[in-house]
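User: Before I run my own analysis I want an independent prediction to cross-check against. Here's the chain; please return only the structure tokens and, at the end, one sentence I can use as a sanity check.
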Amino acid sequence: MTLQINDIAPDFEAETTEGRIRFHNWIGDSWAVLFSHPKDFTPVCTTELGYMAKLKPEFDRRSTKIIGLSVDPVDSHVKWANDIKETQGVAPNYPMIGDTDLKISKLYGMLPAGTAGTAAGRTPADNQTVRNVFVIGPDKKIKLIIVYPMSTGRNFDEVLRVLDSLQLTAKHKVSTPVNWKRGEDVIISGSVTDEDAKKIYPAGWKAPRPYIRIVPQPRA
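Assistant: Structure tokens:
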């Protein structure tokens, strides 16, 4: 199964470090970030899980829930959390999904559908494709997919930046330009005619080309 942007994120039930969940119900009316790991006690993932714990207040401010997944049992995740706290300064403060039967990894296209067996005996290299970030909207549609190799730690500051853009552009008919950060100028969407744009932006806009209409970021 190959998931794409605007697909409905597959629903599932799973055990987590904070109890059993049904994914769509757990998301509720929030945004969500699901990020996956090939195995517990791997070095790059240890740094990532700690950093996400430090960033959690930023996601909270954006009404966004975060949840991890690793191809190992929940009781192993609990033990791993101790290492994360000791080495990164903070333990995961969000749920971690156990995917021992590989069901979710296959459901989300991170492992081939025909992958047999369970997590037992599998190495990080066997699961190296379980390195995805999915941003999911309150409508349960996938808004962003990023896939990383095992050797490269993820940039979760970039995930926050994209989340700011996604939330802004979901509310206003604008797009965000290259390297945009919250508070910077945006571009009026091409679907908005000049006539309609004048009603929305009576002060006008900068237009280095007719198709590039730049305005301050909407605040409301």
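Sanity check: The chain has a mean pLDDT of 97.
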